[in-house]
Each structure stands twice: as structure tokens, then as C-alpha cells.
């Protein structure tokens, strides 16, 4: 008869002769509501044990409107109510809901050793519960392995992707190098130098780069695999995945580390296709579903550094204020 609250430090209470007890679980008022009261038990010396109250079922609703709950130990069945309607008994652990229906479930005891549980937390199948298909955003290349802390690629932020050129072990922006070359006072191009490169990054043969594929994945569907240049990569293998939440949007990055083949010059093309995912909590008859049928491509600029051309027999013919003419012998081992 006296209401008292005990924080979750104990899950039992010693009663004296004739005392009665009932219990409820206190929710945080946000994600979880407070449960209904349990059955009432009374302690009388020499009496048989009171029935054990069954655990309250935990209900989840899939994107397809299927309300399901895990089997409760020692339950002989379940009762559910839809939209606070009639109590419907069932031995199943799932019910199909229609849009905007709500459900509560309780586990049924045998009445001797186990008594009924309380009602589960009310769950509803609404428009927001329904899944939204992932959307393909773009493919990018990077010299460094992408991380959540990096945020979105600049190409998805409305700005020009940062370009880099290598000179020895030093990386500098493509634009800075062009300024150094073309804004020199002796150069006639002046301020008309090109401002952008056609490549996300520059690399070279036998170097490792990272191909990133970005999705808008609001329902956080599980990605299974994709193909890169026709080769399938799977999660748990060479394909990695992480999410970034920004302004309420769940961006999904998939990436694969690739090594540029030997004797690759000028540029290397990478094509992504056949991204596969699990639709909701169920796998289709063919195991997967493909949501991107169009191929998309990223090109990596390659520096020619494997077998540099050689120049010999260099002879100046004439020199003027605007230029010079020379003769030389040029040899290119790779016939580029």
C-alpha cells in the first residue's frame, strides 16, 4: 500500500509476514514508458511459492510493418491488442500491421508456476517507420583511408574536390603548382592558367589508393557487396562501410583499397556497379537486391615515373628573348 521507488540496484525484496508487493519498471519518459504494475504477491509463512511473473515481450516493427518479438521463456502463448482493441491470443511471435496501426503484447503464463507479464511498450507502424531506399551519391578516390571523422568528401559539399600532385615525397595542391609554373613573370599565360584538374587525386603505378562510394542510406540498410571494375567485393572482406549522420541525413561510405597495376600510365579508371543490400530485415528470393543499375566511374591521374624518357645530344641552335630552338635525341622506352 505504500509507494516507494528503488533505483536499479536490487531486483528482490524481503517481505515480512502478511506484506504484499507489486512492482513496475520506470521508463525514462523519452524512449521508454513506465510499465504497468505487476501482479500482487503476499508473503504468508508456510505458503507455497507465488507464481513467477513472465518477462515483458520486446516488440520491434520492421519497415514492412511486421511487428515481432522474441520468445519469452516459459510463456505458454501471447496476447496482443491492435489500436487498443480486443485482446487476441496467439502462439506466434509476429503480426502483420497496416499503416498507422499500433500494438501491445503480453506473455501468458500457466497460472501455476508462471503468471502473465505486463503489456509491452506501445509500438506503431507509421510512415516514418517505412524504409526509404538507399540512393547512390557518387564515387571518389583518395590517397588516404577514409574515416568517419573526415566527414563528407568535398565533392558532396558543393566544392571542388582537392587535387594533389606529387613531387618526390611531397604533395602539393595542383593549383599551387600551376601558380608556381604559370604565374611566373616570364610566363606569357599570366592569370589564364587552368584552375581545376580532371582528377580527384594523382597517384602512380603500384601505389595504394582508396575508392569511395557514397550513399544516402536513411534506413541504414545493410550493404552486402558491390563490383569494382567487374570484381565483386563483399562486406567482411575487402569492402568496408561506415555511416555519417549530418543534418538528420545518414550518409553511408563504402570503400575498397586498391593497388594500381604495374605499368599503368596517364590515368586509371575504376567503375562501380551492382551495389547489393538487404532490403529491410528480409532477403529477397535471389538473396539480394540491386538498387544501382547504372555504372559510374572515377579516374585517377597517374604520374609517369616508372621509365622516364631520356634526352641526349642536346644542342642549342638559337636563343632569343622569347624562346630558343634546340636539337636533341629523345628515347621513350614505353613508346608513349
Give a written overview of the molecule.
There is one protein chain. With about 325 residues, the chain is mainly β. It has 1 helix and 25 strands. The strands form 8 sheets. Strands 15, 17, 18, 21, 22 and 23 form a 6-stranded mixed β-sheet that branches. A 4-stranded antiparallel β-sheet has the order 7-6-9-11, with no helix packed on it. It has a 4-stranded antiparallel β-sheet with strand order 12-16-20-19, with no helix packed on it. The longest helix has 9 residues, at about 175-180. The radius of gyration is 33 Å and the shape is elongated.
Short description:
The protein has one helix at residues 174-182; strands at 20-21, 41-42, 52-53, 59-61, 66-69, 77-82, 88-90, 94-96, 102-108, 114-115, 123-124, 135-142, 164-167, 170-173, 202-203, 208-216, 223-228, 231-234, 239-246, 249-259, 266-277, 289-292, 296-302, 310-320, 323-331. It has 336 residues and is mostly beta strands.
Number of helices: 1
Low-confidence segments: 158-170
What can be said about the biggest beta sheet?
A: 6 strands, mixed
Write down the secondary-structure element order.
EEEEEEEEEEEEEEHEEEEEEEEEEE
Query: What is the rounded distance between the termini?
Result: 93 Å
Please give the oligomerization state of what you see. single chain
Count the beta strands: 25
Report the average pLDDT across residues.
79
The helicity comes to: under 10%
| Rg of Cα set | 33 Å
Q: Which structural class should the secondary elements be placed in?
A: mainly beta
Shape field: elongated
**What percent of residues are in strands?**
35-45%
Amino acid at each position: 500500500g505504500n509507494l516507494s521507488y528503488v533505483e536499479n540496484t536490487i531486483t528482490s525484496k524481503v517481505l515480512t509476514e502478511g506484506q504484499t508487493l507489486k512492482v513496475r519498471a520506470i521508463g525514462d519518459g523519452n524512449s521508454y514508458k513506465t510499465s504497468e504494475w505487476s501482479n500482487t504477491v503476499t508473503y504468508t509463512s508456510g505458503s507455497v511459492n507465488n507464481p513467477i511473473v513472465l518477462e515483458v515481450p520486446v516488440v520491434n516493427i520492421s519497415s514492412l510493418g511486421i511487428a515481432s518479438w522474441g520468445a519469452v521463456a516459459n510463456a505458454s502463448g501471447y496476447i496482443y491488442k491492435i489500436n487498443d482493441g480486443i485482446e487476441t491470443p496467439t502462439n506466434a511471435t509476429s503480426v502483420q500491421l497496416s499503416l498507422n496501426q499500433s500494438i501491445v503484447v503480453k506473455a501468458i503464463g500457466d497460472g501455476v508456476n508462471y503468471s502473465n507479464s505486463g503489456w509491452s511498450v506501445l509500438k506503431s507502424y507509421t510512415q516514418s517507420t517505412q524504409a526509404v531506399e538507399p540512393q547512390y551519391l557518387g564515387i571518389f578516390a583518395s590517397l588516404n583511408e577514409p574515416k568517419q571523422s573526415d566527414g563528407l568528401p568535398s565533392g558532396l559539399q558543393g566544392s571542388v574536390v582537392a587535387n594533389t600532385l606529387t613531387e618526390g615525397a611531397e604533395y602539393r595542391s595542383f593549383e599551387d603548382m600551376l601558380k608556381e609554373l604559370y604565374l611566373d613573370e616570364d610566363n606569357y599565360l599570366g592569370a589564364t592558367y587552368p584552375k581545376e584538374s580532371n582528377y580527384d587525386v594523382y597517384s602512380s603505378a603500384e601505389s595504394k589508393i582508396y575508392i569511395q562510394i557514397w550513399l544516402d542510406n536513411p534506413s541504414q540498410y545493410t550493404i552486402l557487396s558491390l563490383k569494382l571494375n567487374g570484381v565483386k567485393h563483399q562486406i567482411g572482406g575487402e569492402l568496408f562501410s561506415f555511416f555519417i549522420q549530418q543534418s538528420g541525413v545518414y550518409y553511408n561510405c563504402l570503400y575498397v583499397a586498391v593497388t594500381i597495376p604495374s605499368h599503368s600510365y596517364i590515368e586509371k579508371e575504376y567503375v562501380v556497379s551492382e551495389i547489393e543490400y538487404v532490403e529491410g530485415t528480409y532477403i529477397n528470393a535471389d538473396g539480394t537486391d540491386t538498387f544501382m543499375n547504372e555504372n559510374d566511374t572515377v579516374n585517377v591521374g597517374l604520374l609517369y615515373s616508372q621509365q622516364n624518357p631520356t634526352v641526349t645530344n642536346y644542342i642549342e641552335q638559337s636563343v632569343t628573348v622569347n624562346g630558343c630552338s634546340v636539337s636533341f635525341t629523345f628515347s621513350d622506352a614505353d613508346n608513349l
